Amino acid sequence: MNRRMLSTSAMTAMTFLPCVVLLYFPLFCASLPTFNGTSVPTLDASDVPLCSDGRTLWNIIWSCAATVVACTWTAVHPNIPGIKEKRFPVACRRLFTMVMALIAPELIITWAMRQFLSARKATREFNEFLKLSESAEGKSASAPTVTEWTVTHGFFAWMGGFMLYVNNKPRVTLTPGELLEFVRAGSVDMPIITEEEIDDRSKGDGLSKAIAILQLAWFVLQLIARYVQNLPVTLLEVDTLAITALTCIAYCLWWMKPKVVGCSHPVHWKATAAAASPPSELTYDKVDVGFSEGGRLIYLVYPLLSLMGIATANSPGAVRSRRVPSLGGYGKDERSDLITVLVGCLSGMLFGAIHCLGWYFLFHTRLEQILWRGASLFIVCTPACITLFFGFLFVYDIMHEFIARIIASSLFCGGVITCVAYIPARITLITLMFQSLRSLPADDGIFDTVVWTKFIPLW
């Protein structure tokens, strides 16, 4: 009971942090300077911080890096590794997922959303099967007790939690659909594993979650305090705020997912089953054709396609080690696709909107300021166009055909243009963010620290 209360409290805190970010947005914009003329203040590259009692450039970098690493490392919940896999490839896959969370956190949210919806669907299907089985056969005293599935069970099943064994030899990881099919056919027994046993396999603990929450809360609190005291922030801090805000959303979606589980639960094929052996081809049993015909290009495109849910492919490494694809672990249906697209687009708009906080940042040149503004707008407009296009499809049939075609073509063209420019826009933001650190002015308060004593009331 206490564990659930702590989990609920922590999850509420993680959900509340993006709301704090949204509330902080208009306050930050109100504090930014405006320019009445056409000239834009620029910085001389020779400007260097001269103050010795404030924060330094390395303090800023360390604070942002610690916040990002703590949040992404805690938020990312990888799938179960393969049988007898070495630690190095497992660590490399987790590191790659963290890098993707830094570069495109909105795609991590779409991946987490698909896994969350798939886990809920699997949980619902198994619980319906268990209720039908109990009502049809009755409760036997000698029968093993099968607990009701929770969302944790659904996550565990989709992340590769159930391994099929034939003649006491591992064959392949089962999807929840395949497991349910075999259980209904009587080919395997219903796996008996409680939520507590799954949590015991998980490496996630309350201490690591608490450290991540405290680090993020401290970072956001510092930004709010800097606004109150009219102290500017760097573009690196703006980007860190955007990444951590989206990481919180992904973390909430993965809250019930077991973290860093080392091995799967065995499911044995019955010798008395109607079929002597399971089907020759299961979901994770064969390498996709794209990896043999697509060449090396497929290895570059595959992560993006998997995160967006367009296609999940079984790589040679995943099939060889009998595991779920590192960026897979979800099912697909029309309703889940629409919800995922909506959540992903809203997250992308939030990501771009937070970068618009640097709209009036004192850039070195006018060109850098224009590039930052344009890139931020592109990141906001891309998911907005996608959302409008999918929303328009629902009212397409009730509109006049000619007008509907014009609107659909305009939205489609706008979406294609913004999608093509999205990756260059993201690269532009990253480049300008690090380029702005080469020379920060010391006389505008950017190196001044927050005076916390001003927040202490004096009686």
Number of helices: 15
Helical proportion, percent range: 55-70%
What class do helices, strands and sheet pairing give? mainly alpha
Number of strands: 3
Largest sheet: 3 strands, mixed
Report the order of strands and helices.
HHHHHEEHHHHEHHHHHH
Fraction in beta strands? under 5%
Global outline: globular
Strand numbers in spatial order across the main sheet: 2-1-3
Question: What Rg, in angstroms, do the CA atoms define?
Answer: 26 Å
What separation lies between the terminal Cα atoms?
A: 42 Å
What number is the mean pLDDT?
A: 78
The oligomerization state is single chain
Q: Give unreliable regions as ranges.
A: 1-52
Describe this structure as you would to a colleague.
There is one protein chain. By secondary structure, the chain is mainly alpha-helical. It has 15 helices and three strands. It has helices at 2-31, 57-75, 87-103, 105-137, 151-158, 176-185, 195-201, 206-228, 235-253, 289-293, 297-308, 316-320, 334-355, 366-394, 401-435, and strands at residues 162-166, 169-173, 265-268. It has a three-stranded mixed β-sheet with strand order 2-1-3, with no helix packed on it. Strand 1 (162-166) and strand 2 (169-173) form a beta hairpin. Helix 2 (57-75) runs parallel beside helix 9 (235-253) and helix 4 crosses helix 11 (297-308). The longest helix is centred in the C-terminal third of the chain and has 35 residues, at 401-435. Mean pLDDT is 78; it is low at 1-52.
